[in-house]
Design goal:
Blueprint (H helix, E strand, L loop, with lengths): L27 H6 L1 H12 L3 E6 L2 E6 L2 H10 L4 E3 L1 H9 L8 H11 L5 H21 L6 E2 H18 L7 H18 L14 H22 L4 H8 L4 H11 L3 H15 L1 H4 L11 H14 L8 E3 L12 H18 E5 L11 E2 L5 E2 L4 E6 L6
Antiparallel strand pairs: 1-2, 3-5, 4-9, 6-9, 7-8
Helix pairs in contact: 6-7, 6-15, 7-12, 8-9, 9-11, 12-14, 12-15
Bound molecules: protoporphyrin IX containing FE.
Protoporphyrin IX containing FE binds next to α11, α12 and α15.
C-alpha cells in the first residue's frame, strides 16, 4: 500500500517521503552543526532528495528538490505558519515575523515606507560618522577580527537610527543596551531552536527574558522622550504602543548586525575576489561592488533557512522589510573600509580560497582571518 502524504490531506496524491521521525531520533544537533553534510548524508542514505526526519522535536519534512520547493512556495503557503513562533515569540514579542496573513499585510504597509530607498540616504550621515570615529581610533597594527568589528558597527548604527542612541553622546547607554542585547541573544541560542528539553538547564533562557524586559524599558523611555526620527515616524502610523515596542526590539536586536558582519567578513576573507577590481587608492565601481556582495550573499547566506509549521490557518507572503536598509549599510561599510585602509591578512589568503564555515548563529568563516588595517593616508604621496 502507498504511504500517504504526511500533509494529511485526503486529496493529496503524493507519497510520503522516506525517513524516520521517531520521537527519540531528533536530529537538530546534527542539522545545525553542519546542515549541508546532514542533508547530503540523509539524501544518500534514503536515496531521496525529500525526506522525513525529526527537527526541533517536531516531525519535519526536508525538501531538497527544486521543483517541489517551488511547488510548495507557489501553492502551499496558506497551510503553514512560521515555525519560529513556537520557540521565539516569548523572546521577541508579537511582531510581523509571527503575524497571521491579514495582520502581516497591514504591518507590511506600515513598516515598508520606513525603510523605503528614498529615505535611506537620511541615515547615511549617521553611518559615515560612526565609521569615521571608529577608523580614527583604530590601531591597525593589531590583527582585527572584522566580523566582530563590523557586527558592533552595525549594532551601533541600528541603535542610532532606531532608538536615537548616539554613538558619541550616549556611550554608557550604548554599552548598556549592547550588553542586554547580548544576554537576550544568548537566550535565543541557549539551544538550537531553543528546544525545551525536560531537565535541561535553561538559565540562559531566563536571563534572556529578563534582558528583554530591560531592553523594552529602555526602548519605551526613548520612545516617550521622542529620541529618533524613526520612532516619530512609527508613532505617526497609529500602531498600538506594545506592537511598536516589540518591533523596535526586533529591529535593534543582536541578530541583524550579525548578518551584516557575516556577509562582510566573508567579503574581506575572499579578498582575491574583489582585488582585481580595486584601484590603487581603494576605490571600486559601485555596480561591481554590489554584484560581488550579492554573489557573496548568495554563496554564504547568513541565515540557513526558515521554518514553516503546517496549520489550517493562512498567512500572507513574508519577506524581509529591512532588505534595502541593510544592503545600503553593507555596501557603505565595504566601500568605506576599502577606501580608508589597505587590508593585509595576518595569514596568506590564496586565490580561490573558500573558507570553511560555521552555521550558528549565522553562516560565516569558522576560523576568521585577522587583518591589519593600515590607513591609506599614512602612505607617502
Ligand atoms: C543582512 C541583513 C539581513 C538579512 C540577511 C535578513 C534576512 C531575512 C530573512 C531570510 C527573512 C525571512 C525569514 C522567513 O521567511 O522565515 C527576513 C525577514 C524579516 N526581516 Fe530581515 N534580514 C536582514 C536585515 C533586516 C533589517 C535591517 C531589518 C529591519 C530593521 C529586518 C527586518 C525583518 C523583518 C521584520 C522580517 C519579517 C518579515 C515578515 O515576516 O513579513 N531584516 N529577514
Amino acid at each position: 500500500m502507498m504511504r500517504s502524504c504526511i500533509c494529511g490531506s485526503k486529496k493529496c496524491e503524493k507519497e510520503a517521503p522516506p525517513g524516520n521521525a521517531g520521537y527519540f531520533g531528533d536530529k537538530s544537533m546534527r542539522m545545525f552543526e553542519d546542515p549541508f553534510k546532514f542533508i547530503q548524508t540523509e539524501i544518500e542514505t534514503l536515496n531521496s532528495r525529500n525526506f522525513l526526519t525529526r527537527l526541533a522535536l517536531k516531525q519535519t519534512i526536508v525538501l531538497a528538490e527544486h521543483k517541489l520547493i517551488k511547488h510548495f512556495l507557489d501553492n502551499c503557503m496558506q497551510d503553514f505558519y512560521n515555525g519560529l513562533k513556537d520557540n521565539y515569540s516569548e523572546l521577541f514579542g508579537d511582531s510581523i515575523v509571527f503575524a497571521d496573513a491579514n495582520t502581516a499585510i497591514k504591518l507590511r504597509e506600515i513598516l515598508l515606507p520606513l525603510f523605503h530607498t528614498d529615505i535611506l540616504h537620511n541615515y547615511e550621515a549617521s553611518l559615515q560618522g560612526i565609521l569615521e570615529d571608529w577608523a580614527a581610533e583604530l590601531d591597525g597594527n593589531i590583527g582585527l577580527n572584522l566580523y566582530e568589528e563590523i557586527k558592533q558597527l552595525a549594532l551601533t548604527f541600528n541603535l542610532e537610527i532606531f532608538l536615537g542612541i548616539h554613538h558619541k553622546d550616549d556611550i554608557e547607554l550604548l554599552q548598556e543596551f549592547s550588553g542586554y542585547s547580548r544576554e537576550h541573544w544568548h537566550g535565543v541560542i541557549a539551544l538550537p531552536m531553543n528546544i525545551r528539553i525536560p531537565f535541561w538547564g535553561n538559565s540562559g533562557y531566563s536571563t534572556a527574558v529578563q534582558a528583554k524586559q530591560r531592553l523594552l524599558e529602555i526602548i519605551q523611555s526613548r520612545y516617550t522622550a521622542k529620541c529618533s526620527e524613526f520612532m516619530e515616524n512609527l508613532k505617526d502610523k497609529k500602531m498600538p504602543d506594545d506592537s511598536i515596542f516589540d518591533h523596535l526590539l526586533l529591529f535593534s536586536c543582536a541578530l541583524i548586525p550579525k548578518a551584516v558582519g557575516a556577509i562582510l567578513s566573508v567579503f574581506f576573507e575572499l579578498s582575491w575576489y574583489y582585488k582585481p577590481y580595486l584601484s590603487k587608492n581603494g576605490e571600486i565601481e559601485d555596480g561591481i561592488l554590489e554584484r560581488i556582495l550579492l554573489e557573496i550573499a548568495r554563496m554564504y547566506p547568513p541565515f540557513i533557512g526558515g521554518i514553516r509549521v503546517a496549520s489550517t490557518e493562512t498567512i500572507g507572503p513574508h519577506d524581509c522589510v529591512g532588505r534595502h536598509y541593510s544592503w545600503r549599510c553593507i555596501i557603505n561599510i565595504a566601500r568605506f573600509i576599502l577606501k580608508k585602509f589597505d587590508l593585509t591578512a595576518t595569514t596568506e589568503i590564496p586565490v580561490g580560497h573558500f573558507p570553511a564555515v560555521k552555521y550558528l548563529p549565522c553562516l560565516r568563516p569558522a576560523t576568521p582571518t585577522l587583518f591589519h588595517l593600515i590607513h591609506r593616508s599614512s602612505y607617502p604621496e
